[in-house]
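Look at one record.

>
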Amino acid sequence: MTMTSGIWFYIEVNILLAFFYVVFLLIKQRIPLKWARITLILLPLIAFCVIVLKRIVDLSEYSYVPGIIQLNPVQVSSVYEVNGFWPNLNFWSIYGVVTVILFVIFLMRLIRLIHLFRTHKSTTSGGLRCYSIPNQTSFSFFNNIQIESGLSDDEKMLVFEHEKEHARQLHSLDIILLELYHIFLWVNPILFLMKRSLVFMHEYQVDQVLYRNYRVKYLRFLVNYALGFSSPNYLLTSRFKKQLAVKKRIQIMKTQKKSKKWLFIFLPIVAFGSMFMQCTKSIEPKSSDPIEQNENSIPLLDKNNVYEVVDESPIFKGGQEGMSAFIVENVTYPKELVDEGVEGNVFVEFIVNADGRIENPLIKRGVHPELDAEALRVVSLMPDWTPGKLDGKDVAVKFVLPISFRLN
């Protein structure tokens, strides 16, 4: 994978993830919380797999494409130059530095949390370690539960049951997974919204369980908490806005079971998204050999009498080696693009007319406007070819020439 195609792969994943999240927001109210939570967690992985599958399976191979003669690819190389103390920076350099910084911050937060538990005493209850650390609000992390001090016995019981349900449903694992997604997809603001949605979803799941078990008692506790009548510093939901969140939570905890059928709407949407992104697929030369012509093929003729299959193909004077040498000698790799690390394959279509001259060069698949322009310039400079022949007559023939720009 070239640098340019790698950047485009990263962009595609983020675009598709944003598309899937918008679809998720449209259907999440119609599916059970359990399945909504699973879907949200899998969205980045689904987006990644769809783009990988799109790269592996090229749907365009199953469509009809005229048999235009494709020449052997010509590779044009340039070399990075490091000026002064600092190396040239490109997207992946910046991305790598930011990703490493975010990952180190994540590890430091994780280590600090583990250290917090290891440096305080705990009691064990049903396989869970319970803590009452001063100046810490109530929360859970896997099988570790922190209960804020200063609560009444009833409040402690409800808080313990609340956090125990978080631990039972492995909500901490969800949070870690989404944090890791965010580290690698940090350029995508959708991850902030996904993390917020996940926290709300966790609370809604726990609320439904506790409402079934305690009904009015738990409901009264949430209302008192929202109105500020509960213990002063108690924070049940980890930075929720009280009044707005509790009203929504009460509505959801009383909601009846929802149908899972709505989840299947997501499957054709995934297919549609992958087909849409298929339109962006870049073409890479699959072989250094030109397309073979079938002796029994019928010559293709367009309205301008340009053939795509002939008895004798046009030949560059000097053959393939001569054409490669000509292109390498005359191409100038733009310095700005060298500094930016831009590379890739430019596909140039052109016609060798009946006189052997080059006509109508155009870009069939480009990489960057400057590289595309340079490829067109060099193809236009080619000397006359030996024209192609059909039935003993000189005819115009259409070609596609891949020019591969590479950095060493």
